Task: structure prediction
Amino acid sequence: MELVGLLDEVRELARAAEETWRGVREAMATIHRYREPGKWEHYATQDALLGDAVQELGELERELERCIVLGQCEEAEPRRRYEEVRRRLEEKVFGVTRGVARNQGG
Result:
């Protein structure tokens, strides 16, 4: 069933977003502790994007679970929403995070 596969993808992306969000929050605490205000804005933006994505993915996960249980759902709309969140995270968070890690020798 396609919806079950999509639900797995949503859960995997949500897990990655939550882990990244946790890392961003830890970085923000470190920046605050060592008073590095120049870095704060970048992490605050990441924090907001990840928070929104985690919430949206949670809503999508619950919607897909209902669709699967009820057996009534068109895959196109949940798939479109998932792709939109995934693309936004890839462009504005994960791509940036990988770039930062590369620049720091990671």
